[in-house]
Amino acid sequence: WNMADVLQEEMTKVTAAVGPTDHVICALSGGVDSTVAATLVHRVLGDRLHCVFVDNGLLRYAEAERVMDTFREHLHLPVTKIDVSERMLARLAGVTDPEAKRKAIGKEFIDTFQEYATGLEASLGHAPRFLVQGTLYPDVIESCPPPGSGQKHSHTIKSHHNVGGLPEDLRFTLIEPLRELFKDEVRALGRLLEVPERFIARHPFPGPGLAVRVLGDVTAGDALATLREVDEVYVNAIREWGLYDDIWQAFAVFLPIRSVGVQGDQRTHSHVVALRAVTSSDGMTADWFPFQPDFLRYVSTKICNSVRGVNRVVYDVTSKPPSTIEWE
Ligand code: XMP
After folding, report:
1. What are the percentages of helix, strand and coil residues in the chain, rounded to 5?
2. ipTM of the assembly?
3. Where's the GMPS ATP-PPase domain (predicted)?
């Protein structure tokens, strides 16, 4: 496709859908998709677009501060930050089933957007009825059976938080300008919209965040805090070794098991973390990334030496299929 035509077509659709006076809200995650979707809609609607960044308690190390700084400095999009981490974690306490987690997260997101829209009523005279999301074509395919396929819901692979995780009584009309595009097309569109390269080149990060990277109960013990530290060491090491741009996505996973180790002559019974890195062109299929042994040695040593409570690091050597990229 010609991306300039796609851009024009999607901008025309936004104009037609929203009309001349309505206001729109947009959930910005700090990732490529929502940033490109928001930038496109901002081109059309200007200050009738109200962006919100939700700190859901499931973000990576220092992510909220980093993302808000970058929005302010480079994107000039109006963004309000809302912290719902306590509510989100309360909702997830004790939930272990991956689909139940995704549904709970989708519900909390929508409740938050609804409250934000209602809060705008006083200043705008009406609560915005439109919600912009950066949904991509692969999110749609993996969350819902393809149209006309006759498949039942049991064929869902994962309910992406912004598709299959949405409640049935959603009060927003969705604006999804990227719904027919793959990631590489979204990146091309972003370049056309002059979104800074530092956003375009970011690895994808799932909407449900670290909840799908802490297996089982996200709120158990110090799982989230440990995972944040491990992930930060791992991704920084990938950057230091100049590998970030060769990889589609790299992240750590917290496993709810312990193993025996020996650290400083002491027996330990501590956490196991898995590292994942894949190459892919669209996220629909993926290959595990063949790190050099020297890198794996460096990163596993660094993690065990610097993150308390971790005594074992394993590397995931499974492609998609049969695995998916995320573990849940
Ligand atoms: P899977 O794990 O399905 O992931 O192989 C494919 C790509 O999609 C991302 N992903 C999500 N992105 N909401 C998102 O915005 C979600 O609910 C979601 N689940 C997975 C995943 O990180 C990978 O890039």
Report:
1. 45, 20, 35
2. 0.98
3. 1-202
CA distances in angstroms from 157 to 55, 93, 322, 324, listed in the order given:
26, 23, 12, 9
How many Å lie between the centroid of ligand 1 and the Cα of residue 195? Answer: 22
Instruction: Return the pLDDT at 161.
Output: 77
pLDDT at 65 over 50: yes
* Predicted TM-score of the model (pTM): 0.93
Ligand 1: lining residues by beta carbon, under 6 Å? 139, 142, 158, 160-162, 204, 206-208, 249, 283, 320, 324-326
* 41 three-class SS: helix
Query: Strand 249-263 vs strand 49-55: parallel, antiparallel, or unpaired?
Result: unpaired
C-alpha span between 114 and 247 (Å, rounded): 36
Structural domains in the chain plus CATH codes: 3-200 (3.40.50.620), 213-315 (3.30.300.10)
Residue 80 bridge partners (DSSP) = 52
- Nearest Cα residue to atom 14 of ligand 1: 206
Closest CA to 25 of 172, 214, 170: 172
Q: Please check whether residue 209 is in contact with residue 102, taking contact to mean a CB–CB distance below 8 angstroms.
A: no
Q: Strand 287-288 to strand 249-263: parallel, antiparallel, or no bridges (unpaired)?
A: unpaired
